[in-house]
């Protein structure tokens, strides 16, 4: 029996996805699986995969499906996700990836895909001001900085700007999102697996909206 929900978080980068995923993971006590974090860890290595990912991410492009799907499938095969549920952040980005995710999860599927809506210019502003802890990956921004500048509130690690959070790379990622990722929203909507949540406003308010949406879906499924 799976204890927690199986969730996919969609929406433009900058909508507070990372922060909200961490909050949801703590609330439901489930793993937060960020493909971006996995890729960034790999790119710091001196492996062939790391070097390839470095070139892709530094240009602001998306990682090819054959790499991404394999990494996600391997992660979802572990006991913690199979037994407790999960939050997927950064995957799926395309209809093909969504189809592959459904195949990976057979005979089940995700409980809910959540689209965090945010205006593009606000997304650029947020991402350019985003900072992240090197150690635990907690995300901070202008509206929610660490209590001590440069130090993570949770683990004391160094809080830095990501290499791929330059404005040019951000706008490239958002343009790719508009072209390739938004159709997945329609794909999940047609399957009655999507809810749209306003990603603007106070982070606590956004978290409350997300929890209400997840709990409503879980209650509906259990009826």
Number of domains: 1
Low-confidence segments: none
Number of helices: 9
Strand order of the largest sheet: 2-3-1-4-8
Question: What's the arrangement of secondary structure elements?
Answer:
Layout: E1 6-11, H1 17-28, E2 32-34, H2 35-43, H3 48-58, H4 65-76, H5 79-84, E3 86-89, H6 95-105, E4 112-117, H7 120-128, E5 131-133, E6 139-140, E7 159-160, H8 167-190, E8 194-198, H9 203-222
Parallel strand pairs: 1-3, 1-4, 2-3, 4-8
Antiparallel strand pairs: 5-6, 5-7
Describe the structure.
There is one protein chain. With 223 residues, this protein is α/β, with parallel strands linked by helices. It has one domain: P-loop containing nucleotide triphosphate hydrolases (Rossmann fold). 51% of the residues lie in helices and 14% in strands. The protein has helices spanning 17-28, 35-43, 48-58, 65-76, 79-84, 95-105, 120-128, 167-190, 203-222, and strands at 6-11, 32-34, 86-89, 112-117, 131-133, 139-140, 159-160, 194-198. The strands form 2 sheets. Strands 2-3-1-4-8 form a 5-stranded parallel β-sheet, with helices on both faces. A 3-stranded antiparallel β-sheet has the order 6-5-7, with no helix packed on it. β5 and β6 form a beta hairpin. α1 (17-28) packs across α9, α2 (35-43) packs across α3 and α7 (120-128) packs across α8 (167-190). It is globular, with a radius of gyration of 17 Å.
